[in-house]
Amino acid sequence: MVISGHMSVLCVVTLGCLALITKGIRIISDPENLSYNQPFKLTCEIGSITDEIKWLYTTTEYFTCSSPYSAGICSIGSSAAAQAVSYDVNTTTGTSTVKTMVTSSSQNVLWTCKHGVDTATYQITIKDRAVVNTFVSSPKLVNEGTNITLTCTLTSTSKLPVNISISRYQYGTEEIIDYVTNSSLKTLSVITVAECRDYNFFCNTSNDYGAMHSKLLNINVGCQVRILENEINKVVNATIGSNATLNLKIIGYPRPTFSWYKQIGETERQLNGYRIEGIDSPALKIINVHQIDEGEYTVRITGAGSDAIIFAFKLNVLSGIASQNEDAEATRSDDLGVGDLGVGALIGIGVAVGIVASLIVFGVAMLIIRIRRPPMYDTATNYDRTTQKKEADDYQLRNKRNSKRPVQEDYEQPVDHQEVYEAVD
Question: Which intervals hold domain Immunoglobulin (predicted)?
Fold first, then answer.
């Protein structure tokens, strides 16, 4: 029952019910049937929005908004809870909304919407959800191969019909033992044979009024310690710098003790906690693997009333040095400068530069001599008046040759020594 201080109206609150209507303001919930850990939206239907709007969680002000109700203008509370809620004011539809999640702490909490002096409240109520009350075994202490009875009972407020299942959980796999759907009963009992792998059992229940609820039951089934050899990776590969896990899969109760060793030469050395996790567990984790960590490892399992069991692993360490060295060599070659070269390489480069320079100087000298040297003519031809026209032609040709000056294209261009000579390490 919810009562408002202004124009009060009496309302009996049920799941998803409107809590209070005051001067035309009301709050509705979407979805109507609320459940834990599921999102929901409360809509405050105002009509014509002309005044300040506020949302309160119990008595704490989470949100305030005034005209013009635009983005970046309204204020949100500084607490993490207030910041986790999504708010909106829509002047077109005349509504304001909040979107959030239902949690166990929000059960029976009031949300309040205010528009000026008008107020409406909504109470979060989840009372019809199917919830497991008790989950027990009989007998409580069992050995492998004996019958065990598992009984799951729901709370009295769980609304019928309900779905109930009982399952066992072994090494990451859940196996359903028995289940019922749309049941008119709030209890389920099953008889099963206890297995050595058994440790965790679950009772799961759900209905149309909330999310599934589960309850865990731990049972220690007495049995001889055994190694699940077919499910174990005996050879483990790891790269330098990574982590490697030697994982022994084993069943048995009471729980055995574990001691880990490494074969070093002719000696078997017991391991300690240096770069090691799980030294006393069935899973040994080696942190930041080094090349020296490669080798054979053994674990010694000792259980009450049984002889020690020894199991061996092989750890291969893949260095990845080849690819790393190639990358490093490429980087080193790209970054190689004159200061990084050896004496022999510097001498070779100096000789090469000298030879190229000498060739260039020689070529230039020959061109200059050729240009400056006068052309040789036959004397009879030069002084024979009958060939004057020919002499004129020769002089014209000579003048053409003399006027031609050597340009850059006429020289053989020097080649960059870095392309000609291969650097020698």
Answer: 137-222, 233-318
